[in-house]
């Protein structure tokens, strides 16, 4: 901690010239940032998730009506679009998505005890139509009603025969998909109302007392996911090979490995965080940091994002199989180190903007 404090002090001195004194953003700047990010970054992504899950539900139902190879491919592609949409909004962990544990219902992961597999196998063994109702899924375990459950069903090794003749497996997948479509629709609708809180903090109706309080939630959504990507999506599947070149990898710890999209998830995550940082031009965290007198750090973070995205594209896929290759392991270790650098830079930016992120949702994990 002492070294980090000294490092930050030296960084501040180096980045500020006598003619460029740091000035904290005022309430007007914070409010403009909040309103812009919610309107242009958050709301469109929740609507995209609602649209994608609705299409997934429709395509899953169509598969049960006609279990053709073409329809199975369409349903799988719809799953990919829904997961893309989710990976592009899962960093927003506050607001309506918190209600009734919706976030965990959409994606319960990492599933260290294979609860999704156990619950799915139990449902398939019983083949009880009462367990296909929306009422059942509203009260069911979070492990059985999300995208990981859809992935297990749609990417079953048995292939097309598992969905033939309007099978229970096909109808179970369609029911889970319909539940996700309903969840996506209501979350997007509720966010339209929640969004007004960013325009009128402290008015008695807003969820926030101040503009800075609202900004803190948005900045948390930028900083904390970097650690999640590094720790859970990169280092966890690397296993002991994360620190030892001769260590043992754990491919089944990779996110969404059954659908061969572990790295695709990270692509979406990083691109989304990059957009949250600088995608809105003059109304972005990057612009705010620059205008506060920290241009060099702002540019450095932008360069970090670009470098991480470039390195991601160079990693061979799917990670589930390429993890066994020493060269891929080294690429992932290098990427992990860059993610840590990005995490530290963003943390420094938070301090320079005089914000306190407070409790980390991952504390105690």
List keywords for this structure.
365 residues; mainly alpha; A middle domain of Talin 1; disordered N terminus
Description of the structure:
- This protein is mainly alpha-helical and 365 residues long.
- The chain has two domains: 33-198, A middle domain of Talin 1; 210-352, no CATH class.
- The chain has helices spanning 2-15, 27-65, 69-87, 102-106, 115-126, 134-139, 147-154, 168-194, 211-238, 262-278, 285-291, 295-313, 319-322, 326-352.
What is the fold's blueprint, element by element?
Blueprint: H1 2-15, H2 27-65, H3 69-87, H4 102-106, H5 115-126, H6 134-139, H7 147-154, H8 168-194, H9 211-238, H10 262-278, H11 285-291, H12 295-313, H13 319-322, H14 326-352
């Amino acid at each position: 901690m002492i070294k980090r404090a000294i490092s930050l002090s030296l960084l501040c001195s180096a980045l500020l010239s006598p003619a460029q004194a740091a000035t904290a953003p005022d309430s007007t700047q914070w409010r403009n940032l909040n309103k812009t990010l919610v309107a242009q970054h958050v709301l469109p992504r929740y609507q995209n998730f609602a649209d994608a899950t609705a299409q997934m539900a429709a395509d899953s139902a169509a598969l049960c009506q006609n279990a053709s190879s073409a329809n199975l491919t369409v349903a799988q592609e719809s799953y990919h679009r829904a997961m893309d949409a989710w990976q592009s909004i899962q960093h927003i962990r506050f607001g309506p998505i918190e209600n009734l544990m919706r976030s965990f219902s959409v994606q319960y992961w990492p599933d260290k005890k294979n609860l999704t597999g156990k619950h799915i196998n139990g449902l398939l063994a019983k083949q009880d139509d009462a367990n296909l109702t929306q009422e059942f899924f509203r009260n069911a375990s979070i492990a059985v009603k999300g995208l990981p459950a859809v992935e297990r069903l749609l990417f079953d090794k048995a292939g097309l025969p598992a969905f033939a003749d309007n099978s229970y497996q096909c109808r179970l997948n369609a029911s889970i998909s319909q539940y996700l479509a309903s969840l996506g629709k209501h979350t997007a609708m509720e966010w339209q109302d929640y969004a007004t809180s960013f325009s009128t903090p402290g008015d008695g109706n807003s969820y926030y007392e101040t503009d800075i309080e609202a900004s803190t939630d948005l900045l948390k959504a930028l900083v904390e996911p970097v650690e999640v990507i590094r720790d859970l999506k990169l280092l966890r599947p690397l296993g002991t090979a994360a620190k030892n070149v001769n260590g043992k990898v754990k491919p089944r710890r990779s996110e969404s490995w059954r659908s061969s999209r572990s790295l695709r998830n990270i692509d979406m995550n990083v691109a989304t965080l990059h957009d949250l940082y600088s995608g809105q031009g003059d109304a972005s965290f990057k612009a705010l940091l620059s205008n506060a007198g920290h241009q060099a750090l702002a540019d450095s973070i932008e360069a970090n994002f670009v470098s991480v995205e470039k390195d991601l594209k160079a990693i061979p896929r799917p990670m589930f199989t390429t993890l066994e290759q020493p060269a891929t392991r080294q690429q992932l270790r290098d990427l992990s180190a860059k993610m840590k650098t990005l995490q530290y830079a963003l943390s420094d930016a938070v301090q320079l903007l005089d914000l306190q992120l407070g409790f980390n949702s991952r504390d105690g994990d």
